[in-house]
Amino acid sequence: MSAFVPPRSWQSRPSPNHNARPATAKISGIVLHADASSSVASSMDWIRRSESQVSYHVLIGRRGDVYLIVPPEQRAWHAGRSVWDGVSDCNDYTIGVCLSNRNDGEEPYAGAQRIAAIEVCAELCRHFAIPASRITTHALIATPAGRKTDPRGLELPPFRAAVATALRTKTP
Fold first, then answer.
1. Partners of 137 in the beta sheet?
2. Using CA atoms, how far apart are residues 84 and 90, in angstroms rounded to an integer?
């Protein structure tokens, strides 16, 4: 498979917090996050500090701005202790997509941000042959259960359906 080339509109903001994926790992899912921050700037500051030991592949701002933090071929440190369909260490085989949001259950995800998240996930699904059904949330994979709540307020079934629609309506 060829390396992922992000659309020109995605801004590069590299984080040192990543490493190589295991040689046997195949990218097979996307994990949605919310950064629990008040701004993209504060989240960006945190994930670009080596001492945070946290990163995502993509961060999406409240106005729909998209930032590439870690190339998808690399292993970002977004999921922590996790298991999905019986397979542990989700960082090995998933792509972390984060929406900038306080994750308090009160701040809504803005329209432009939702649209950008759907487009980002569709782009990644298309390139890595990931079905929309293989999009999940940090809350659903974090162990022990209940350890994480993000992205609070984002309904997964309609989001997956929107990505599936985007995959059917746009050709690569």
1. 32
2. 7
In the predicted structure, residue 171 carries a pLDDT above the cut 80: no
Q: What is the homologous superfamily of the domain 11-169 according to CATH?
A: Peptidoglycan recognition protein-like (3.40.80.10)
| Mean pLDDT, residues 92-116 | 97
Please tell me the predicted confidence (pLDDT) of residue 81.
98
In percent, how much of the chain has pLDDT > 70?
Answer: 99
Q: 3-state DSSP call for residue 169?
A: helix
Mark 13-34 as b/e (b = at least 16 C-beta within 10 Å).
eebebbeebeeeeebbbbbbbb
Helices 111-128, 156-169: crossing angle, 10 deg rounding: 60
Decide: 88 and 126 in contact? Cβ < 8 Å: no
